[in-house]
Structures are given as structure tokens and as C-alpha cells.
Amino acid sequence: MKAQFDRVVALLLVIPLDLRQGFDSIQVAIFADQHAVANQKGLAVE
Prior knowledge:
mainly alpha; about 85% helix
């Protein structure tokens, strides 16, 4: 029973990690896009 419980806990820990990584990659893409647009306009985005 404990092994099954540990597996469920492991899944619950892994799934949010995958979601966070996906969210981070989306944020990075948006951030890079903002930089590209700013560079085309000759502006620096901090």
C-alpha cells in the first residue's frame, strides 16, 4: 500500500514540475519576442 501511495505522490510532484517547465518556456519565448521587437525599434528592454 505504501509503495502505491509513494507512486501517487511522485506523480503529483512530477506533473506540476512539467507544467512549470512548460510555463517557463512560454515566458522565455514571450520575453525573447519582446526583446526582438524592442531591438527592431532601437530600444533596450531591461
